[in-house]
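Model: You mentioned two targets. I'll fold them one after the other.
Researcher: Yes, keep them separate.
Model: Target one:
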Amino acid sequence: MSRNLDTTALRSFVAVADTGGVTRAAGLLNLTQSAVSMQLKRLEESLNTALLDRTGRTIGLTTQGEQLLSYARRMLQLNDEVYGRLTATEFEGELKLGVPHDIVYPVIPAVLRAFATSYPRVKVQLVSSFTRNLMDEFNRGDIDLMLTTEDSVGTGGETLTQIPLIWVGAPGGQAWKQRPLRLAFEQRCIFRQFVQRRLDDAGIPWEMVVESNSSRTIEATVSADLAVHTMLEGTEPRHFEQINHGGALPSLRKMNINMYCADLKDGPVLTDLAKLVRDGFYTMNMPAMA
């Protein structure tokens, strides 16, 4: 007698494996924690094997769970592809998604992948630039959905999460000790004036040593220990390190990751893209809990 795996339970299993806990998975799937736990229990009972290792602070996978995860991903991908192609054929066209370059990872690739599965006939053009540039394009109507990094939120915006702004420099660098403090920022970087004001308020003299809108130029200057820079925590490249200045530099605040959308009343396509982005940052911001 043939037996069938429950794709809903498989989806919960994959979500738990990806997020490291039932709490995050439940938030991602818009389910209660008890519903996700029940689905996992039924899945383990149907296969008569333990899939999850619950002995640590976060949930891990058993050997059998690792094997199932590979199958489950393929099954869900095929399921979603079939569903998308047979039910979303009435939606086609193009959307523009604007994202500052420093917050493209880790959320946006997963968003694009999930959206392409649900709406295979809709092309999403990713525009990666500075927040000010994206705002200009959004206000002209050239971008349908925009993410920004700001110290507040504007009219019509929605704050998805907050990430600390930190001082960064070359590994083991000494540039942060120099006065005037040597800064390297892109001309259009929205953090630039905020950082200058914080230094002025702290009475720390500074000078701008780079006048460029090339991120590579900034990276080269900072990694050579010729200047310092600020970035959102967790987005710094490997050739930068957070500066442990012990109070010698002013403290910086958390910055908002905001989302702005064009009129969502036009249909479900943009609404669903916004939801995917919102869910992605929600999951990233959740603590890993069993």
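Model: Target two:
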Amino acid sequence: MSVVVQHARAHIVTDDDLRDDHASVPVVLRYDSRDPRSVRIGLPDRHEWTFSRSLLEQGLRAPAGTGEVRVWPCGRVQAVVEFHSAQGVSVVQFETRTLDRFLRRTYSAAEANTPAVVHR
């Protein structure tokens, strides 16, 4: 079993008018090889979202997702992850290189947990 935890900074914008979320905040990116198709993003003082690792990867190149989680590139160096819940919508803006680095680490962890096939 491998776990990847990457602490990052992001900009959060929400439809909650009571917060000033335009400042950079700490977020936690997580991957656990026991659930190899999923990643998690933990937002400060909020829910931890679990969604498809392939959705995150696809969203770095083109808009992806139609449900509770949507991801899309924002210019050349930013990416946006949008979370929908009964409490509202949170839009989280990351540097693309942060998410790329995280995805590379998850694939390395997954490969490390794949048993080698021995041909006899």
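Researcher: Noted. Anything on target two?
Model: Residues 8 and 53 are 17 Å apart (CA to CA).
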